[in-house]
Specification:
about 210 residues; 4 strands; globular
Length: about 210
């Protein structure tokens, strides 16, 4: 009998100062690996590590000057922990959690009909992720089933500030989606309003306080 396909979505958590995965992002990848080996006899599984980087900080580069993409770092982690190469599909297009959800849906899960999802992120990031993914996958589209899996925070500086920022962002997203009823309307909002993706972007400035590192 053909196995049901589980699509494991690993949300981005930034890139460390030295161009490596921060520990909380490694924990997200570890949770994905553990899920795979605990369940591979029951399900076929594919993995989508997300994010090209972040809108709020300059892209880091390697010693040859090539851009370091967050999804590449997560993919390297998965490969080093024996996840099959043909099961990994990288999302380079997104630069925040909203983009994670939108581009995973439109570039991967809609096309491949992967409708049974497992979303993995740190617990400090989970509430906002649930708000976003439930809206895009379950309010705008009724065919998806989503399981959410917490990974360890490990070391995160400024945790209280980060939690406040996450909750504020969750509330703003919910308010912005009040009159959005279709994926077409969401697409229009994303490319006309969202600072990461709209054409007429503001001049960027570095945040006064980094909520991921000291």
């Amino acid at each position: 009998m053909e196995k049901n396909t589980k699509c494991i979505i690993i949300l981005g958590g930034g890139i460390g100062k030295g161009g490596e995965l921060p520990e909380w992002s490694q924990e997200r990848c570890k949770s994905a690996v553990e899920y795979y080996f605990e369940n591979k006899s029951r399900f076929d599984m594919v993995f989508i590590p997300t994010s090209g980087g972040t809108y709020h900080y300059p892209n880091q580069t390697d010693k040859l000057g090539f851009t370091i993409f967050e999804c590449d770092l997560m993919t390297k982690f998965l490969l080093e922990h024996n996840i099959p190469e043909d099961k990994i599909f990288r999302d380079y297009s997104s630069f925040d959690t909203i983009g994670n959800a939108f581009f995973v849906k439109t570039l991967f899960t809609d096309i491949r009909k992967w409708d049974d999802l497992v979303v993995i992120t740190s617990d400090f990031h989970m509430s906002r992720s649930i708000e976003i993914f439930n809206f895009i996958f379950c309010v705008l589209d009724k065919k998806y089933k989503i399981e959410y899996l917490n990974s360890k925070n490990n070391v995160l500086f400024n945790l209280n500030d980060r939690l406040c920022k996450e909750e504020k962002s969750r509330i703003i997203f919910k308010k912005n989606m009040k009159n959005i009823n279709t994926i077409e309307q969401f697409h229009k909002w994303l490319y006309s309003t969202h600072e990461c993706y709209k054409s007429n972007q503001k001049e960027r400035k570095l945040p006064s306080k980094n909520l991921l590192y000291q």
